[in-house]
Amino acid sequence: MIAEAIVSFVVQKIGDFLVDEGVYLHGVRGEVEWVKEELGWMQAFLKDAERKQNDARVKKWVDAVRDITYKAEDVIDNLILQVGDTSLVNKPIARHELGKKMEEIKNEIIQIRQRRKTYGIKNLCQGGEGSSSMSQSLREQRRTSPLLEDTEIVGFQEDVKTVVERLIKGDSRLCVISIVGMGGLGKTTLARKVYNHDTVKNHFDCNAWICVSQEYDTTDLLQSIMRCFMIPTMEHHGMNAVQLKEKLFKHLKGMRFFLVVDDIWKTEAWNALAAAFPDMNNGSRVLLTTRNREVASSADCQSCLHELQLLGKDDSWKLFCKKAFSAQDSNCPKNLEGLGKVIVAKCHGLPLALIVIAGLLSKKERLPSEWEKVLKSLSWQFVEREQQISRILALSYEDLPYHLKLCFLYIGVYPEDHEFSARQLIWLWVAEGIVYPRGVETLEEAAEDCLVELIQRSLIQLVKRSSIQGVKSCRIHDLLRNLSISIAKEEKFLDGSTNSLSPYKARRHCVHHGIGKYISIKQSTPCPRSILCFSLDGENLVKNELGLLCQRFPLLRVLHLHRIEVKEFPNEIGTLIHLKFLGITGKVRNLQRLPSSIANLRNLQTLVVDEHNEIEIPSDIWKLQQLRHICVNGTIKGPEAGLLSFPSNLQTLKSIRADNWREDCLGKMINLRKLAIWRLDVSGHGNRFLDCIPEFNQLRSLRLVVSPFSNPYPCPPISNLQHLYKLHLSGTFVKLPESHEFSPNLTKLTLEKTRLVHDPMTTLEKLTNLRILRLVFNSCVGKEMVCSAEGFPQLESLELEGLRHLTEWRVEVRAMRSLLYLRISSCNQLKMLPEGLQHVTKLRKLELSFMPQSFKNRLRNGGEDWHKIRDIPYIHLSVDNLASLRL
Q: What is the per-residue pLDDT across 18-51, written as a single tens digit (0 to 9) for each?
């Protein structure tokens, strides 16, 4: 129940206000306490109200409760803004105004209470059946169940075979092949299976994937294609669409390329891109996925469409079981099989409906009575297939606990097909106050649990995993996004429109284009608490516009600008004292500093600035006690001398410059989870910085970058950092720590410019939990490297780049037995691949780039090293290799 969550949040806010200002409220304290208590009682009635939302009287009553709650929040927030840092004892006029407004709210609440009796809305709080609490066993199941990726979904075997054959065989001309079908049918999943197929990867010289969606920008799409097909430069960043098409056309001449254009809706979208792709009669291919047959036909009238069909009974049942039960045991219990097959039949073979309803059932007790309740919900009436599928999606939403409903609705802020960062979403949830702490967990850990559960329920799609197999990025299916947006608008939780005349419209506004126009619209309604802008085509905001934004929306809690070019922030940013999240993301380029007034944002929790260059952050920012995350793609100056207190809850600090930081300040930030330090210099305070590192016993990720002018450093002792899983060391260190001196749970290690004379493999191969290893840019300056038998038992990914002195690499039998991915680049002295590589039988992907001609010659079919790589399914050779090597 969204209204319940809103009431809970505001009741907490009023409670905090009473604690902070209660002694100064004098004659109005009673009215404030009465409103808080009465809203608390209403919250109890709301708990089960959603079970009667089909009753128009109940819905009307719930809407009234939500609106009066918003009104109370407006009064408190505006008062806090008006008073500022001054106590109410010095503001008698403000205190009097508060009393008047609270009296008005009290009278409205009395009327709402009376209406519940007048119109026969009985006690809704029955408990029992409507409870959304999970048993301990289900909670443990949620924590331990593996996340299922799209590529693991069953079916499509014959479809994959057919599409792959059409890509590999047939006309030598440039063919556009289309996969056509309704939403939720699995077009993108099929395209992804084809795109990752070993035969396809080895057949084409270069591959690219773009997603178009209903709203798109041609220049942005061309930039995305360029990033896949070639290394973009600063020159490309400023090109228009015509220039980009010319550049791509010239680059792709002579290459056999493969491009996937996913989720294209309009013929104009393909027509705007088509001129960038030369037809050299060499078998190049484009694969479209679309719901529109007209788009497919117009793109290439000579090619046959591949019309995706609904799943058959067997595949439907197999997919359902795989999602409803654990990946280890996907067999359906006999006592549930009959009910399960009836439920599956109601999904009509649509994969999305199957995985969503199975995700719902995976959170239920495995009892026939529980499954019968779900079936009854699906069987309430006979409807058309499309309506039934919509009902299935809505049912999964309705089954969510209310805090997960808020999390799900929040995903509607993102544009269609947008791949969003799990970390930033979690920070937004925390700033919005829609997740709650549980026991000793941090808010971020509780939010991560919510995200994992939504993925396990198949309401969000996992896109990328982190190095510890957590969630790195996600997206949401179009149909589920539409469901999220429609409910969010109805509940006044979120609005993508700026034209609403509702007196209490949504507290959150998402703007996907025209942020300048949005700011200029005169707001006649209470201002929003969150503005999230995800520009599709890149926009600019000048200082005056940002100043106007701060004036128009003084109660903002969240301001997130994605792909908005910002050159300068005005001092007015400091007036947003309610602000908890400030994000400028999407690789902005021109922002150089933040104003000193940012130190006024006393509620700020998260600051994210994704700037290419170093940005100046005022040192007064360290006075902000609520800070939890500072993530700046540059370096942050340290606090000035004399600062006594620091944000004790700071978890992310990326990145600080050691040359202007006092190490005693760093030592006070004991709750850090992620830390990046640049410009360490042993001639300054570098050693004392390193001495602080062992104190951060909560640290998960650490990056240390030594100044190029520094003497060699001793690596800090990190064996006691039990939670450290990611380590990046850059710069000359005295020596590599022994294996027992590393964190026992280290899973990802990057060594860069460390100039190690001795072979590091003898030490690193003993790290039993290491999964990812990157040795880059003169991390090693020795000539030989040996991977011993039984070494690197868990290693899955190995990158060797810029090891200019390496001449010989040996791999013994049973070394790296878990290796899946190997990349070698710019190792100019390396003579050949190791003989033992042929025994690394799990290796699925080998990437080679910028290697000497003699090295490439040995890899030809029939060459001296051909036997070492012939069983590797996918071998990728960068553009520099194409002229001389074709496997």
A: 777 765 676 788 888 898 888 888 887 776 665 5
pLDDT tens digits, residue range 176-206? 999 999 888 899 999 999 999 989 988 998 8
pLDDT at 616 over 90: no
Please give the structure tokens belonging to residue 192.
């992804």
pTM: 0.84
User: May I ask the CATH class of domain 156-307?
Assistant: alpha beta
* Cβ neighbours of 458 (radius 10 Å): 22
Whose tokens are 């920070």? That residue is 427
If one looks up domain 402-490 in CATH, what number appears? 1.10.10.10
- The token pair at 325 is 């039960």
Torsion, Cα 134 140 143 147, to 10 degrees, reads -90
Per-residue pLDDT band at 502 (split at 50, 70, 90)? very low
Instruction: Write out the CATH class of domain 506-650.
Output: alpha beta
- pLDDT at residue 523 in the model: 63
Q: What span, in angstroms and rounded, lies between the C-alpha atoms of 16 and 72?
A: 14
DSSP 252-288: HTT--EEEEEEEE--HHHHHHHHTTS---SS--EEEE
Cβ–Cβ under 8 Å, residues 409 and 431? no
Per-residue pLDDT at 162:
95
For 751-764, write each residue's pLDDT tens digit: 999 999 999 999 99
Tokens 């509702």 sit on residue? 502
Task: Name which of 844, 802, 841, 843 is nearest 824 in CA terms.
Answer: 802
Which helix or strand (DSSP H or E) is residue 752 part of? strand 748-752
Location of structure tokens 């009854």 = 376
| Domain 156-307 identical in fold to domain 506-650 | no
Peptide bond into 655 cis (omega under 30): yes
Dig out the tokens for 632 from the structure.
């700046």
Low-confidence winner among 271-280, 373-382, 578-587, 735-744 (lowest mean pLDDT): 373-382
Task: Provide the residue ranges of all domains of the chain, joining segments of one domain with +.
Answer: 2-130, 136-150+311-398, 156-307, 402-490, 506-650, 777-887
CA separation for the pair 450, 453 (Å, rounded)? 5
Helices (H), 346-384: 351-361, 368-378
Q: How many CB atoms lie within 10 A of CB 413?
A: 27
Taking CA atoms, 298 is separated from 187, 274, 822, in Å, by 19, 12, 41
Going by pLDDT thresholds of 50, 70 and 90, the confidence category of residue 130 is: very low
Q: How are beta strands 257-264 and 420-421 bridged, if at all?
A: unpaired
